[in-house]
Amino acid sequence: MTWHGTDGHPRLHIVTGKGGTGKTTVAAALAATLAARGRRVLLVETEERQGISQVLDVAPLGTEETEVATGPDGGEVWALSIEAGTALVEYLRLFYRLGRAGDLLHRMGAIEFATTIAPGVRDVLIGGRIYDSVRRTTADRGAGGRRGRDSGGRPAYDAVVLDAPPTGRVGNFLDVTGQLADLARVGPIRNQADAVRGMLHSATTVVHVVTLLEQLPVQETLDAVHGLGADGLRIGAIIVNQARDASAREQVDRVAAAEVDPEHLASQLATVGIRTTPTMVDGLVQTAHEAIQRRDLEVSLEGAIADAGRPVLTLPHLPQGVGPDAVWRLAAELARQGVAL
Ligand SMILES: Nc1ncnc2c1ncn2[C@@H]1O[C@H](COP(=O)(O)OP(=O)(O)O)[C@@H](O)[C@H]1O
Ligand SMILES: [Mg+2]
């Protein structure tokens, strides 16, 4: 089994997709899939939205890693919300031995100022914090402590799952060195960016893309697969979320095969005691045509997704919405479909 990346480090799974397609839900489900296999997983969000805590129904996440779920065989999901300001303070402590002065800068608003004027720096800091979690070993003292390269010990996490920015921004987010070009040519920020870049471009990292079977999300998915692939990132699975169940599709297939004839429809309805007006029948025929069109669109979108040449996983639309139970259900579904993690 190839569990660890080929360079011996745990896997970093980056989950992106058009906004609202289910990135947070799928990231949580991937983490749960791993935990169900007995792994120790860190689930990370970077956008300060508290999406993970809402999906898993736990207290709002902080900048300290906390355990949020346990798998049946001793697997664990830990979670973390990376906040750029805190990451910068940690960073200043580490490299400039600023100590409490960093906190003072925070209170003065200087950190917010620095991370706002230089979004590239913000992404390097967030990337650096993720790097730390991927590389840290059980022999290290914790976040922001010594890096664990030579310290022995097991990796602190078997895998890290990142609920990443949406497709529209993820390219910039992952291009940590490109964004810094003019800002920091040398120095510790630059070194950090290079280390993060090395991790993102190694066999450790895979990017999964979440989509719905709709035109725009699929277009963004294909653009992301090509764009990120061209940037040298490894693309994992394309995950079609909120798919309609097969029986709904089959019903539409039957209607399409029967070619809806208004007169036939009216007489059939009459045999079961339903009296119709021509307007009603027109409405029904119109609805049937729309359903057929939507099915045809979905079939062509599925074809376009398949042509991207990546493994495709499909998750059902859960009418009761998403909570902790649903996350485990979706995780079981990912495992059943043989998700490669
Ligand atoms: N498989 C699903 N079935 C039903 N509702 C879902 C499913 N996946 C996501 N949702 C719902 O869709 C909305 C967007 O999901 P979310 O994971 O927050 O997306 P994103 O992080 O991409 O914005 C949320 O309300 C979520 O509960
Ligand atoms: Mg989200």
Total separate domains:
2
Q: Could you give the order of strands across the largest sheet?
A: 3-4-2-5-1-6-7-8
Order of SSEs, N→C? EHEHEEHHHHEHHHEHEHHHEH
- What's the total number of strands? 8
Q: Kindly state the mean pLDDT as a whole number?
A: 87
What CATH calls the topology of the largest domain is: Rossmann fold
Structure description:
The protein is an alpha/beta fold. It folds into two domains: 11-243 and 308-336, 3-Layer(aba) Sandwich (Rossmann fold), CATH 3.40.50.300; 248-295. Helix content is 51%, strand content 15%. The protein contains 14 helices and eight strands. An eight-stranded mixed sheet has the order 3-4-2-5-1-6-7-8, sandwiched between helices. α1 (23-36) crosses α14, α3 packs antiparallel against α4 and α12 packs across α13. Bound molecules: adenosine-5'-diphosphate and magnesium ion. Magnesium ion binds at residues 23-24, 51, 163. Adenosine-5'-diphosphate binds at residues 17, 19-25, 51, 241-242, 315, 317-318, 321-322.
